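Reply to dn_fold:

You asked what the input looked like. This is it:
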Amino acid sequence: MSVSTHVVALRPTELEPAVQALAAEPDLCVLAGGTELMVLANAGRLRPRGFLLIDRIPELRGVWFSEQEVIIGAATTCADLTHPDLRAVLPALAQAARAIGSAALRTRATLGGNLASGKRLGGGPAPLPGRDLLTALIALGAVAVCRTRDKWRQVPVADLYARDGGAQLLPGELITALRLPLGTGQQGFMKIGTRGGPGRPVLTLALVVDPSTRQVACAVGGHGPVPARVDHAGQWLQAHVDWEAGAIPDPGTYQTFARLVAEGLLAPLTAGPAGASTSRIPEEYRRKAAEVCARRALVRALPPSGWLEQVKQYQIKAELMRARTAVERAERGLPQTPPVPGPISGPVNVPGLGALGARTDITIPSQGGGRA
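and this is what came back:
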């Protein structure tokens, strides 16, 4: 007979009390959607001292547009990421979010939770998480905004992880938002899995093209702990595109680019164990999958018939989103300032229980108990 354990859960309604509480007790387990952590806790594989629930902090959820970037709160759900408005300007991220789990799970799973899932820096072993969003974010050049009680830290998402896949978050640090450059071109995401929906990926691929800067970024994941950019393939492609005419003169460019992407899987920095359900996939199959996905993604992003009209439509949509988002946030009374660096006062005393909002008890089974 299993014995249940009660742990304290704090649920602040503002960002400042949340970071203060985390600074006072860095061992608190940050919980947003709970799609990973509560499964581990109910299975007896996670024994937290307490939970810090951030799902009711409005500053951490939503999208902010500026002239040069899109800022997305860390508590924004995967379902929110698939909204048509966001899909119009960040289709790769929306497609990656759509590939995560079931529709019900996407209403709870969050952007920050997907990035912080799995092994922590200095922690013990943990199952390799299905970070489908990470592949798209690395290709998009996203920057993670992290906050402690005393300072902000901004780090490219590609540099947020150790080689073993552990998220390198400092003690008491909370991911508050993601900053993504607002490009002017096409992008896309592809996933091949052992089964649809929640299955572990055999391979994920994201391609981002920005005609305004004449740059191409490609990232490949699913084959190791952390997705990796295939920079040499993107750099080669940049020199084989007629950016003025909006065309690729040589049809063989598509296949050559795809082959370069597949060869990138052999690079030392991409080496590492795959997920439990895909570790036995032959490497030859995985490389062939990368080649096929890369060729299809490039044909969709830069079709032989040209793409200049697509770029114009993308720019129109981005301008519309900037104007609409500001008005809608004001009408709904949502925070107008995103959770990114700004003036920070000196250390403040840790607030009392009242400032932290609701406090409750979460019941989890003892070690070895079944799921609740």
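The first strand starts at residue 4 and ends at 11.
Hope that clears it up.
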